[in-house]
UniProtKB/TrEMBL annotation:
Transmembrane segments: none annotated. GO terms for molecular function: exonuclease activity; ligase activity; RNA endonuclease activity. Keywords: Exonuclease, Hydrolase, Ligase, Nuclease. Residues 320-340 are annotated as: Disordered. This is Ligase-associated DNA damage response exonuclease. The keyword Disulfide bond does not apply. The keyword Hydrolase applies. It comes from Paraflavitalea soli. It comes from the Bacteria. Its EC number is 3.1.-.-.
């Protein structure tokens, strides 16, 4: 029996429905799980996504042929039934459920199992075959509860204020930045942001999302305005001339990679907060088991370790090579360059 989803050099392909899921090369029809750059590439003829993802795709990819649906809404591509379900990764992030002739496959995209209060709670979707990420698919990755991490961030900001320093938090402009905003808004009314985060913020608030007010960092603002305040910037701004205006400042990196101290040293960060938009080891295992899948394909991350463990647990698993994972680098965009 042919697979419902095939692994091709362009991406995950459904032959019966004639569409791709998060393709990394241009195709005619593409279902997009979320708006991060490694999953949402330019050049496709038609884009299908969740309605909350649409504004971000328009910001990042410009004018295209877009179609959006809500979670748990079904549509048919030829004889294939397709629906989107919450992934909990970032705003609008979805898993793609594909059903054909009584068989169900689910493509997770990126996901996390702790509800962050913004992105929607991850929804396990029963299926025969589950395609899962494994970004943090090692037992060493075990996240503290979100509120505990938020408390650590607030305490760090307070200590910087006592030392007369500006607190610069490094966070991806889509996903992490919105969570960090939520964490710091409780202790300060002045939150400064880099242009890339400002642009994302504007699109989300215009789409109806209620987020804390922010102030865009511009060349006209005096250096004194930042003293003892909080600044949120994307990874691409770290270590650039753009940062000089905040001196004296302390840098805190918000990333799951901060679970390992060596990563904090390599980033020359003053503090590291293991705040991740991906599931940790236990979250990955819980998600896989909750689907009841008989077969699991493991994509980007620690594929070999995670798939081997699943096989040892009696869950048939295999590795799949994809081109996902690049959003961890978050390339510099034109609005960011203009702010340097």
């Amino acid at each position: 029996m042919p697979s419902i989803i095939e692994f091709t050099d362009k991406g995950l392909y459904c032959p019966a429905g004639q569409f791709y899921i998060d393709p990394w090369k241009p195709v005619d029809k593409a279902f997009i799980t979320h708006a991060h750059s490694d999953h949402a590439k330019p050049g496709n003829k038609y884009y299908l996504c969740h309605r909350d993802t649409l504004p971000m795709l328009q910001l990042r990819l410009g004018d295209n042929h877009y179609q959006s649906i809500g979670w748990n809404e079904s549509l048919y591509m030829n004889e294939v039934k397709v629906s989107l379900h919450p992934a909990g990764h970032i705003i609008g992030s979805s898993q793609v459920r594909v059903e054909h002739k009584g068989e169900v496959w689910v493509v997770s995209g990126d996901y996390k199992t702790e509800n962050d209060g913004i992105s929607g709670a991850f929804e396990p979707v029963p299926c025969n075959t589950f395609i899962t990420e494994s970004t943090f698919g090692l037992p060493i990755y075990h996240w503290k509860p979100q509120e505990a991490i938020y408390t650590d961030i607030r305490n760090w900001i307070h200590s910087n204020q006592l030392a007369g320093k500006t607190s610069v938090l490094i966070a991806y402009s889509l996903g992490k930045a919105q969570r960090v905003l939520k964490a710091v808004a409780e202790i300060t009314g002045n939150i400064f942001v880099h242009g890339a985060i400002w642009n994302t913020h504007q699109v989300l608030t215009q789409a109806g999302w209620r987020l804390p007010d922010v102030i865009r960092v511009t060349p006209e603002l005096p250096k004194e305005a930042f003293k003892g305040q909080v600044v949120i910037a994307p990874p691409s701004a770290d270590g650039t001339p753009w940062m000089r205006r905040f001196a004296p400042y302390s840098v805190g990196v918000c990333s799951g990679w901060m679970q390992v101290r060596g990563h904090q040293r390599r980033r020359n960060a003053d503090a590291g907060f293991a705040l991740s938009d991906h599931a940790d080891w236990n979250g990955l295992l819980e998600a896989v088991k909750a689907t009841g899948a008989e077969k699991v394909f493991v994509t980007h991350g620690f594929q070999s370790v995670f798939s081997r463990y699943l096989n040892e647990q009696g869950i048939a698993a295999g590795e799949v090579k994809t081109e996902y994972g690049a959003e961890e680098e978050e390339a510099v965009t034109e609005p960011e360059k203009a702010d340097e």
